[in-house]
Amino acid sequence: MNIRLRDWKVININFSLLDEEIEGNEGRFDLETGKFFPQDESKTFGVVFKLIIKEKAIDLFVESIFNFELDESVTEEFKLSSFANVNAPAIAFPYLRAFVSNITLQSGINPVILPSINFIKLSEENKESS
Predict the structure, then answer these.
(1) Alpha carbon of 123 to those of 2, 55, 94: distances in Å?
(2) Distance (Å, rounded) from C-alpha 118 to C-alpha 58?
(3) Going by DSSP bridges, is the β-strand pair 58-70/3-17 parallel, antiparallel, or unpaired?
(4) Band of the pLDDT at 25, cuts 50, 70, 90?
(5) Residue 29's closest CA among 5, 56, 2, 64?
């Protein structure tokens, strides 16, 4: 089975530079991931990221979607596979990471560099909480 990242886009962003740094603010980094399987396109699926960063004088929310294309129809087995739950988010995340770095850098502040994410561990945690 061949799989490729077809496209991606930011569908929602809210970025604010606060007037002053919040003292004692240790920062907040929250990342939610999800996936979707369009009914009308049997050979595609998507990964969704919702990212919240509140760090010092930055308040950032980004929601993005990444669309993947397969050369075969998506099966129920594929929906539960490690590719859909681990590999696809791991392939997509560097694009989101670069976007956040660029938007913060272009805003005249030190760029925010997102940490590396262990998507295997994140997938296991999501299974446990379901």
Answers:
(1) 22, 26, 17
(2) 25
(3) antiparallel
(4) low
(5) 56
Q: Which of 53, 3, 63, 2 is nearest to 25 (CA)?
A: 53
Residues pairing with 110 in the sheet: none
Say if CB 71 and CB 112 are below 8 A apart.
no
Q: Would you say 22 and 56 are in contact if contact means Cβ atoms under 8 Å apart? A: yes
- Whole-angstrom CA distances from 74 to 7, 46, 71 are 18, 11, 9
Query: pLDDT by residue (tens digit) across 89-130?
Result: 999 999 999 999 999 999 988 899 998 998 988 877 766 665
